[in-house]
Amino acid sequence: MDAPEYGLFLNGAWVSPNAPRFTTVNPANGEPVGSFISGRKEDAGAAIAAAQAAYPAWREMPAPSRADLLLRISQVLRRRKEELARLVTREMGKVLAEGRGDVQESIDFVEYMAGEGRRLQGETVPSELRSKFCLTVRQPKGVIACITPWNFPTAIPNWKIAAALVAGNTVVFKPASNTAACAAEVVKCYAEGGLPPGVLNMVTGSGATVGDALLTDPRVRAVSFTGGVETGRQVYTRAAAGLKMVHLELGGKNPMIVMDDANLELALDGVLFGAFGTSGQRCTATSRLILHAPIYDTFLAMLVDRVGKFTVGDPLDPATDMGPVASADQERKVLEYIAIGRAEGAKLVLGGHKLTGGRYDRGHFIAPTIFETVHGTRISTEEIFGPVLSVMKANDYADAVRIANDVPYGLSSSLYTRDVNRAFQAVNDLEAGITYINAPTIGAEIQLPFGGVKNTGNGGREAGSVAIEEFTEIKTVFVDYSNRLQRAQIDTARPP
Ligand code: UN1
Question: Is 160 in the pocket of ligand 1 (CB under 6 A)?
Fold first, then answer.
């Protein structure tokens, strides 16, 4: 099958400049999925120019009308859900149920943001002076660069694009190269929904060329980036010279703590989904399992038994528990970490290798891998982004929390217990942007804020109503209707 050729989406049209191309491939079988332009600096420039030209009219369109368009776009996404889900699975490798989840998360968020078009709330507060009215309004920032990863190839772009657009910004979108077909099809849904030309533009290509052009162009007012910590650091530094507002959503090393009073069957289902869902390639993936000493042996045996029965294979097949990792690059990185785990003396209890033979030889399949280790090893503290789980023992709750918190990341976290006091204590104690009680570290819902502490980001949150914050400026307004000069702090009436 020939891979369809895509262009760049500039000012409402698909254009194919005479530039080199790259191809995305299905990580389960090596088949090509789509062919894309390696965007050049001037292509990024053209996209920014289109976004800038479209900005004044888009900004002036009433927010509820922008929201109407988002609602139409969500209907296109809904109509195309199954087709897009299959594309997500083909291009990225997550199992089909999760491919559908990825697209559903997109639909949910675009709909939710359509509602935001009738809120975009500011605040009114009292003045210290008579006959004076104080309020805030939200205004768009201008042209926003959205730079997105491959692990949620439809959901994360939608998180960023829909929030940016409803607030009145225009967007240049640079998707991860290995899931560019998913990105292009999402853009087609926006176009079909009736978005005016230039409001959303997409340039495929490398971070070094396209990404860098977006980060350094003075016409881009803000950047929203999801990806790894090291790239995030470069994005932040590079954009700093232009004093751009940068929103970063970076990695995690998310712990699940299982106490001895937990429902162990429930915790087992949780860790299976949390650690091996999406082949461990979620920022929120459960990559550390911290077991309370009294249940350590029992739970580990239950875990190994279940994971040992996993079906790893074709992610389009409903019988498959886990698909491939997303690319040759990912395969190499994950295998490197497995080698590091062995070298640092962690005990490999399951997996630990690439799967070979038959259909496996055409894809990037890694056996679900479980290491017993101690806190402080590299595999127990560094993000692996693959189906590799580090299991550790904790003497008691305090020890478990100490281990959970002693990493540079803080995205998601989870505690399994039947003790309600302990559950609330953990909400207080765990250093993370998200804490789950009796549920795994993955599976955040779009109507709540999403983000983390420490090296997981720089303080912002996506999703929920707060998503609007990264995409708006607050204007403070004072209306004095007293018809005389009133001096704040000086003329203010105060008790003697
Ligand atoms: C990510 O991995 O970057 O909470 C996003 C979850 C998903 C989103 C993950 N809803 O697992």
Answer: no
The 3 state secondary structure assigned to the chain is CCCCECCEEECCEEECCCCCEEEEECCCCCCEEEEEECCCHHHHHHHHHHHHHHHHHHHHCCHHHHHHHHHHHHHHHHHCHHHHHHHHHHHHCCCHHHHHHHHHHHHHHHHHHHHHCCCCCCCEECCCCCCEEEEEEEEECCEEEEECCCCCCCHHHHHHHHHHHHCCCEEEEECCHHHHHHHHHHHHHHHHCCCCCCCEEECCCCHHHHHHHHHHCCCEEEEEEECCHHHHHHHHHHHHCCCCEEEEECCCCEEEEECCCCCHHHHHHHHHHHHHHHHHCCCCCEEEEEEEHHHHHHHHHHHHHHHHCCCECCCCCCCCCECCCCCHHHHHHHHHHHHHHHHCCCEEEECCCECCCHHHHHCCCECCEEEECCCCCCCCCCCCCCCEEEEEEECCHHHHHHHHHCCCEECEEEEECCCHHHHHHHHHHCCCCEEEECCCCCCCCCCCCECCEECCECCCCECCHHHHHHHEEEEEEEEECCCCCCCCCCCCCCCC
If we measure between CA atoms, which residue out of 253, 465, 261, 242 comes closest to residue 373?
A: 253
pLDDT digits (tens, 9 = 90+) for 380-401: 999 999 999 999 999 999 999 9
Q: Do domains 8-250+457-476 and 254-437 have the same CATH topology?
A: no
For the Cβ of 279 lying below 6 angstroms from any atom of ligand 1, the answer is: no
Domain spanning 254-437: which CATH class is it, in words?
alpha beta
Domain boundaries, the chain: 8-250+457-476, 254-437
Taking CA atoms only, the protein residue closest to ligand 1 atom 3 is: 283
Could you tell me if the CB of 151 is within 6 A of ligand 1? yes
pLDDT at 1 over 70: no
* Catalytic machinery residues: 249, 283
Which numbered atom of ligand 1 lies nearest the CA of 277? 11
Options 3.40.605.10, 3.40.50.2300, 1.20.120.530, 3.40.50.620; CATH of 8-250+457-476:
3.40.605.10
Tens of pLDDT, residue by residue over 408-430, are 999 999 999 999 999 999 999 99
471-477: average pLDDT? 98
Does 176 sit in the ligand 1 pocket, CB within 6 Å? no
